[in-house]
């Protein structure tokens, strides 16, 4: 694959937590959308330095498992240094071609969807890695227009414009998934679907 994205995030991994803000109450509200995930097997895709991981581990509990997947080795290294646990696995890889032998109960793409330059590959990987009945959550704690502005308003070598949430719903439906929640407001972009 093109290494531009990996290099972009590798270069920022050391200071990622200083240049981004994820208020704990907003992160909690995002994860609340999944409902009760105790004992669930959860994939945090594009996990970065692991902003979701402690909350996810607490929610899945000792019988659950969390896999943090990112294509940037330095993001994974930073995340490993901050977050450990017997039921936490870190994996380096491109989600588009990554396949788990054991499907997940939930896949979360938090604050990373625009960086999947192959959205079709993203959807096919969701289908391959999410069990029937499992949940996909795509979430940002900013609205679509704000995110697109931050990304320069156009497709680039590291991001695509975030699609209207209705487009995600249409693609999910075409793959046999059932959208459960669609929200695109000034300060949130949430899409939740059940496979
Ligand atoms: C904007 S950062 C967000 C990181 C983290 N979710 C957060 O909110 O702090 C996007 C992350 O997605 C990762 N990423 C981009 N494309 C990816 C892909 N195809 N497979 C796995 N990770 C990817 C990047 O390396 C980066 O760490």
Widest sheet: strand ordering: 3-2-1-4-5-7-6
The domain tally reads 1
Query: Portion of residues in helices?
Result: 25-40%
> How many individual β-strands?
7
Radius of gyration: 15 Å
How many H/I helices? 8
At CATH level 2, the architecture is 3-Layer(aba) Sandwich
Largest sheet geometry: 7 strands, mixed
Can you tell me the CATH superfamily?
A: Vaccinia Virus protein VP39
Order of helices and strands: HHHEHEHEEHEHHEE
Shape: globular
Brief summary of the model shown:
With 195 residues, the protein is of the alpha/beta class.
Architecture overview:
The protein is 35% helix and 24% strand. It is built from eight helices and seven strands. A seven-stranded mixed sheet has the order 3-2-1-4-5-7-6, sandwiched between helices. Helix 4 links the parallel strand 1 and strand 2. The longest helix is centred in the middle third of the chain and has 11 residues. It is globular and about 45 Å long. The model has no long low-confidence stretch (mean pLDDT 96). The site of S-adenosylmethionine (SAM) has 21 residues, from helix 1 and strand 2.
